[in-house]
Design goal:
- 32% of the residues are buried.
- The protein is 67% helix and 9% strand.
- Helix 1 packs antiparallel against helix 8, helix 2 packs across helix 6 and helix 5 packs antiparallel against helix 6.
- The protein has 269 residues and is mainly α.
- The strands form 2 sheets. Strands 1-4 form a two-stranded antiparallel sheet. A two-stranded antiparallel ribbon has the order 2-3.
Length: 269
């Protein structure tokens, strides 16, 4: 198999591994329990660590009524002949618990590694491959940090750090796939492959949008089964888009091979 075919295969695998997440629980436990505190009552905080680390939680009812609003409400209800003195209760997170350590069957670490190797193999074909190497290395580092966080910090610090680093990680994912897509499109000349370039750009944007939507839907789906099912549907749609991208891109295989030979075959002679 030629260097070009290996690189394209690694890119396609890298795209799928980065987009698709299928976590499974292991027999390993985190070194300590989650430090619950009154600071973590917001749902977004629980969704964050539930999605990243498979945490579970219990709920409690919090009295959300305000003393300054009770009197006006009572007067209004009395005018209507309604007697109401019950407090306003809001369902909030009570305690958070860690499950066992999760691993992803389609590890993002492997996806970034595939893209890194593929970019090195055909780095001369487009300058975006050089940038993709940097973002791939950054992705490998941030992925390791995300996995190690529960072993280093705990409580509200873990929640905030995981949320902040998670947003950076999502940006690196999108940037890496964008750079590889841009580099691949530079390998097919615009005047001769306008239709392929146009559809590849459309599919990349659709993939970007669906990946972000699936990420946040799966995040919220940590507590809502229906949303989790919807997230899997979006993930499936994203994979379909990726396959469609590669099908259309390979329609220009003659031009791709020509660009590759321009930088590697002739220079090696």
């Amino acid at each position: 198999m030629s260097r070009l075919k290996v690189a394209l295969l690694l890119f396609s695998l890298g795209f799928i591994f980065i987009v698709l997440d299928i976590p499974i629980a292991t027999n390993l436990s985190y070194p300590h329990n989650y430090e619950n505190s009154k600071k973590v009552i917001g749902e977004y905080q629980y969704y964050n660590i539930a999605s990243n680390y498979g945490a579970t939680c219990t709920y409690k009812m919090l009295d959300d009524s305000k003393s300054k609003t009770k009197e006006p409400e009572t007067k209004i209800n009395q005018q209507k002949g309604i007697r109401s003195s019950a407090p306003k209760l809001t369902k909030v997170i009570d305690k958070v618990y860690f499950k066992n350590v999760q691993i992803d069957i389609f590890s993002d670490f492997a996806g970034f590694l595939f893209i890194l190797i593929g970019s090195i193999l055909i780095i001369k074909c487009a300058r975006q491959f050089k940038l993709a190497i940097l973002t791939s290395v950054a992705g490998l580092i941030v992925h390791g940090i995300m996995f190690a966080l529960p072993f280093i910090i705990n409580g509200i610090d873990l929640v905030n750090a995981s949320f902040f680093i998670g947003m950076i990680y999502l940006a690196i994912n999108v940037a890496t796939i964008y750079l590889i897509t841009a580099a691949l499109l530079r390998m097919i000349p615009g005047p001769w492959c306008r239709d392929e370039r146009k559809w590849c750009k459309i599919l990349w944007f659709a993939s970007f949008a669906s990946q972000c939507l699936a990420t946040f839907t799966f995040w919220l789906g940590s507590d809502f089964g229906m949303l989790k099912a919807l997230a899997w549907v979006i993930f499936g749609f994203t994979i379909f888009i990726q396959l469609a991208f590669w099908y259309i891109y390979m329609r220009a295989k003659d031009y791709i091979r020509g660009t590759y030979e321009k930088y590697y075959v002739k220079t090696s002679n």
